Known about the structure:
By secondary structure, the chain is an all-alpha fold. 73% of the residues lie in helices and 0% in strands. The chain has helices spanning 6-23, 28-45, 58-68, 71-87, 90-94, 100-130, 139-166, 170-186, 198-204, 208-220, 236-263, 267-280. Helix 1 (6-23) packs parallel to helix 6 (100-130).
Amino acid sequence: MSTHSPTARAALLQARAELRISFLTPAFLAQLIGPVLLVGILCFVMRDSTLPAGGIGPGAFALVGALGAFGSLGAFELLSEMYTERTDGTLLRLRMVPGGTRSWMLGKTVSCGVVTLFAVLLSLVGGALVFPDLVPESPLRVLGLLAAVVVAYLVFLPFGAILGTLLRTAWGLMLAMLGFYAFFGASGTVFSPLVYPEPVQWLVAVTPFYWSAHVARWALLPADAGAAELTGTFQPLLGLGVLLVWAVVGYLIAPRVLLRGIRRETVGALTASRERIAQKGYV
Length: 283
């Protein structure tokens, strides 16, 4: 899409405004605290753990896996922003602008992606200071990790849009948050899935969380660390294949669900939600 098109220009203006809020306001503190908390939590949780692979510590293994699955955080950011923008009338206004939904989604893709990559780089730098095993052998390894994060981000993004369209209450958002953290932590992202019984391993093997972490570990960790994977060795092509299947499913479903959800935004629905906020403090 040419940057000279009205849709692209509107998307870039939206992304620039959102990134100014993320990086040039006190909200930037949240961008700094998140990676610090991630590294600290992994240090605490993995301090007594063991890893069925030589040549790499469990902390480094966990952090790289978590960074690989960081793409899902961009989708979750989109989900939470959709909840906020539904109540402030932004989604309703999209109906009144030609190409509004397309430019809005493109702008969100850019802004959430930049924030996600910033968090990954900051966590990688902090992790390298704590886990000496995590120091990359070459810049190409870092580029491999970033490529894995971008792929995972693009895979998860349509599912964030789908959930953001379907979830319209604070309780729904809270349940989605709990489910997200449960899947993130239990899908072989921060520890080896070999600790699970075999039936559970099969369930883990179909999740995009696991394969995004798997591809990131292949990009940054030595080959010996592959012994802790479900396949016994790193299988990046298999991982990318699974992620591709999830991406096809997501991008086939998301546009239809999103457009249908935007059409459901009405002045009456917005007024009712604001009245509930005024009475209860939440939708």
